[in-house]
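Please check this record.
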Amino acid sequence: MKLSQFKFNLPEELIAKYPVAHRDESRLMVVHRKSDEIEHTTFKNILDYFGEKDFFIFNDTKVFPARLFGNKEKTGAQIEVFLLRELNPEQHLWDVLVNPARKIRIGNKLYFGENEELVAEVIDNTTSRGRTLRFLYDGPHDEFKKLLYSVGEMPIPEYMGRRAEPEDEERFQTVFAEKEGAVVAPAAGLHFSRELLKRMEIKGIDYGFLTLHCGLGIYRDIEVEDLTKHKIDSEFMIIPEELCERVNEAYDEGHRICAVGTSVMRAIETGVSTDGHLKPREGWTNKFIFPPYEFTFPSAFITNFHLPYSTLLMTACAFGGYEKVMDAYDVAVKEKYRFGAYGDAMLIID
């Protein structure tokens, strides 16, 4: 497959800048792989397509407030810093992106917070945009983290064209977020409300959690036409043994296994063994799923409507079939579905 095959015309107004009022009231398109049928409903009706002992796999990663706005020493120039990952907790070292990168040199100091209560020093230039920052703080690590996060904003995607607002602290996070480490929300999971999870339990639909800390790599532009030459950034993942035991039992009994989101799909396909069962795993994955791809485990897939050329769209096409999914996207544009992390959802099912 070529990059150019994932182009489609997406009107700017269809990119969701804000979430719907209630998580489970976004729209849902259901794409049936075998019959080519497309249904239109609302997300709260998703359980109509599943039965007792079917199994949903969620990503319980937690997004932290990774976007900081600070000022450079002497010049006062505003600098945006995007926290990627903590490198050394004891020394308060972080791997970050800075913008504009050209204004930052090794040794520069940056000041954050209304009263400039947090100071960082640039100690390394790792890429054209990347830097390593040492935050200058003498207190305990938990106090430092609290201060760091108090000056940060939720890292909503740039395509929303706005700064984060107080509502995003709750809504750019799943209701089951637990393990901190993501800078991108697992968007498909955003549609699940506590009420919907309760209804799953009442209906006897099982679910469990793995962890994959979603990074910025999924948003990075693909610069090659040949997709086999594109490499995505590695992301840390944990597939617990307890999840494997439960989901493998459901799989062996012939129940549906539903991957909730592209991050879950990447983790599953990284962790599945040659015998078709999910194995416990802790480590890094740079799995890039695009068509053609032979899936070994999930039989249903929930994902949002993604932007043109995105790796997320490619994963959806790999599971649902390239032509089916691209045709469904044409329908979505005509029917004015909402796209992006705060947009509507698609269920791909047999």
Q: What stands out?
A: Residues 238 and 282 are 4 Å apart (CA to CA). The first helix runs from residue 141 to 150. The chain has two domains: 3-63+169-349, 67-153. The domain at 67-153 is CATH 2.40.10.240 (Thrombin, subunit H).
